[in-house]
Amino acid sequence: MIDLRAAAAERLGELPWSLRLLLENVLRTAAPAEAEREARALLDWCRSATSDAEISFQPGRILMHDTTCVPALVDIAAMRDVVAEAGGEARLLNPVIQVDAVIDHSVAVDHFGTPEARARNMAQEIARNAERYRFMKWATGALDNFRLFPPGVGILHTVNLEHLAQVVATEQRDGETWAVPDSLVGTDSHTPMINALGVLGWGVGGIEAESAMFGVPITLRIPDVIGVRLTGALKDGVLATDLALAVTERLRQIDAVDSFVEFFGPGVSALAVGERAVIANMAPEYGATMGFFPIDARTIDYLRATGRAPCVLARVEAYARRQGLWFDPAHTPRYTQTIEIDLSTVRPNLAGPRRPQDRVDPAAAAAALAPVMRARGRPWPATPLPSSRRPGDGAIAIAAITSCTNTADAKLLIAAGLLARKARRHGLRPPSYVKTSFAPGSGAVLRLLERAGLLDDLAAVGFDVVGIGCTTCIGNSGPLTAEMMDAIDRDGIVPVAVLSGNRNFPGRIHSAIEAAFLASPPLVVAYALAGRVDLDITADPIASGEGGPVRLADLWPAQAEIEQVYAAAARPDDTVAYYAQGATDRSWATIEAPTGVRFPWDARSTYLRRPPFVARTAPREGVTNLRAAPLIVLGDDVTTDHISPAGAIPATSDAGRYLREAGENPRDLNVYAARRGNFEVMVRGLFTNPAARNLLCPEAPAGMTVYAPSGEILPIWRAAERYRGAGQDLVIVAGHRYGTGSSRDWAAKGPRLLGVRAVLANSFERIHRSNLVGMGILPIELPADRHPAHLALTASDRIVVAVTPEALEPDAAISVAIHRADGGVETLSARLLLRTAQEAALIRSGGVIPYLLGQTLDRSRVLPTEALS
After folding, report:
1. What is the pLDDT of residues 279-334, one digit of tens each?
2. DSSP annotation of 607
3. Do 649 and 656 form a contact (C-beta atoms < 8 A)?
4. Nearest to 225, CA basis, from 17, 451, 439, 82
5. Predicted confidence (pLDDT) at residue 867 exceeds the cutoff of 80
6. Which residues contact 412 (CB under 8 A, 6 or more apart)?
7. End-to-end alpha-carbon separation of the chain, Å?
8. CB-hemisphere CA count at 13 Å for 45?
């Protein structure tokens, strides 16, 4: 092993635990000269707890899900074609590190509230996605180091936590066995959930993951590390979800973007790994790269509880203690800044109704909805309707126990089951208009719940298992009840969703729902029983039971009850036995896949098309004095959901029309996430989220823009097509926190296909900024006081960016000039938001794909084109 204590000497104790792991990675994987320089930079970080130095990181493995994996595989298959067509050896394009892909993002809640719902949803998932799944099966035979977990096994982060992660792994080097810290990157923003085990890992875009899987090191600046000191312990009745929402609110009040967050202090020891996982999972919601918990006795407890072998437990503890990686609750390393949270002060929480950082006391949920109702012109609080069981404003359309965030902790699900048991005894059921669902992160926990008798209790109040996968959390919520849709269409009501997920952006959960609250699993059940949010759920009667009014206090389980059930029902061999059985759905085995080094494309396919941005052609020369038209101008908090939707494809949309003309069933066009292998669908869906308001034409429907030469209002993709035909470069202009949310590579690939050369925004979220660079699009940071709303851009204005290829340097100051249609010119200073020299090189070469093609062609001894040489 790398001897960290010898390498760092007295400085080791000053480094945050997360940076100690980065130090080990640098010393083990970098070339000797680079390793010495980068290690010195990491140790020098302790002097000021910040640094501009660059280091390289080589993860041990990559984690993907199906809707990020398929686009990456499409790119790889297309690159193999390009290499072969140039006379090269296509099989050289192969992952050099382990890639695990989990199919979890495609199951939808088409059926609910019955024991058959899970099987029926699975059958529908396989039928809808068989072509994509054949493609992924092809990859398991065509690519080295690629492993696939079939649909219905679990959510990737839960599978990672309870099955894949080793914490300390072993590898063979020159005939010797080395002990190495487990490490990874994942193509999902919630990859930091694994930080709960003390494993170094974070989310990256699919484009960055493609380069990493082919051995290109990830370069990063040594991050700032924000220390969160935890003290005390959670009070009875306060759950891990409540703490995660409080942490998210607190950290969003400071700038954690591009930073590691590390938890330390005596309160850390009071949290089990399941509780830590909820907090670490929400790192992207509080803006951080990671939410890291060091290795300690609680880590070993979790590994034991999930059936890891005794030798693994011994190796993890011995290695962590020997290397200075074992957590000491009394020790305070050096941090860039610190905040403190007393766990005993945390109360039950909600978050919403539009952002996960907007924490709300449950008693104030109705008040939090007031701005949404005002914007829709609805009186609020709502006038009581003749029947409390008829949906009105604030009625709950969806109540979902969903997401890896809050289903990987078995005790949260036990709490929901116990609340359901008590509600069942009172004879309570949700109103008929509420769509209820329960979709855990893996089937291992179902064994525990079944043993405890809690699955029956959950089903008795409508929460039958609908599948094992992401479902509602990512927008695969399926259709609302007919009763609810009738009230929306007839009365114009504003419904609400309550879910145990991690995001609640308008339109994300369902296109008809713009208000959603995040909540713990037991609170989700309680709100489902109430059927509405215009009440104080902590004090008002939730519903009338067989013995009269029932309040939350009558149903809420004590912590001792939860612990008692867990102790009686948990079995360490549940997890091992579950993963040993593999895929349980017979229809998966019947899917036949093609074979061969190259994938046989089908010109008739509406799922898989060879993308035009994968080609052996030169990228456009430089970006010198780029003179571009604004394609779309946006405000703050534009998420990747706004840029590239994931949910259902409306039959009347441009993407829907394209699919109908190709012969697809208009009643079931699947979701955008499932069509990410077809660029024609994806470009037509860009910016069509109803919340994506284009300031160039604010009264126009989403997805439209002004085509300046004619003044026409056109679909964005159609206007971009015309601009491209005229040789006109394009830019996107946005406000603060552009690209927040999922690690969606199509939020960068799509703009690239539209002809966008740069995105100018007041600030960017980390993963999306990286994806833009990977597609050769310049991220440019505007001054905070030059907001798009104040710039008052028109489609006829032109934006001139003065930067030469030679000036493409990290954080370079550049000049941006707005040439107004009336002849005026407005100049402002901006910043080129490149983080490393490698990112600058990627921009020069046109992005990751041209770089990888050039590398592979060089290895094939084929003379590349001049642009790729």
Report:
1. 999 999 999 999 999 999 999 999 999 999 999 999 999 999 999 999 999 999 99
2. S
3. yes
4. 17
5. no
6. 239, 240, 241, 274, 278, 406, 500, 520, 521, 522
7. 38
8. 33
User: Do the Cβ atoms of 276 and 196 come closer than 8 Å?
Assistant: yes
Instruction: Identify the CA nearest to 789 among candidates 677, 683, 698, 701.
Output: 698
**Amino acid at site 350:** L
- Per the structure block, which two tokens stand in for 832? 């080129």
What is the distance between the alpha carbons of residues 722 and 709, in angstroms, rounded to a whole number?
10
To the nearest 10°, report the CA torsion of 723, 866, 846, 606: 70
Number of Cβ within a 10 Å radius of residue 690: 15
Of the candidates 639, 636, 671, the one whose C-alpha atom is nearest the C-alpha of residue 655 is 671
Instruction: At 145, list the tokens.
Output: 């180091």
Reduce the secondary structure of 677-738 to three states and give it as a string: CCHHHHHHHCCCCCCCCCCCCCCCCCCEEEECCCCEEEEHHHHHHHHHHCCCEEEEEECCCE
Q: What is the pLDDT of residue 168?
A: 98
Instruction: Give the chain's radius of gyration (CA, Å).
Output: 26
Total-model pTM: 0.91
| Single-letter residue type at 240 | A
Q: CA–CA separation, 759 vs 739, rounded Å?
A: 11
Residue 54 pairs with which residues in a beta bridge? 221
Q: What is the distance, to the nearest Å, from the Cα of residue 309 to the centroid of all Cα atoms in its chain? A: 31
**Amino acid occupying residue 222:** I
Amino acid at 167: V
687: left (phi over 0), alpha (psi -120 to 50) or beta: left
Quick one: DSSP state of residue 143?
Answer: S
Cα–Cα distance for residue pair 772/757, rounded to 1 Å:
10
Q: Residue written as tokens 């215009």?
A: 534
Confidence of residue 586 (pLDDT cuts 50, 70, 90): confident
Exposure of 320 in the CB half-sphere (CA atoms within 13 A): 26
Tokens of 480: 């609302």
For residues 501 and 473, the answer to whether their CB atoms sit within 8 Å is yes
796 half-sphere exposure, CB direction, 13 A CA radius = 9
pLDDT confidence bin for 383, thresholds 50/70/90: low
Instruction: Decide: 742 and 191 in contact? Cβ < 8 Å.
Output: no
436: phi > 0 → left, psi -120 to 50 → alpha, else beta; which?
beta
Residue from 172, 170, 152, 192 nearest 63 by CA: 192
Exposed, middle or buried by CB within 10 Å (0-12, 13-18, 19+), for 384? Answer: exposed
- At position 770, the amino acid (one-letter code) is S
Whether 267 and 238 have beta carbons less than 8 Å apart is answered as: no
What pLDDT is recorded for position 646? 87
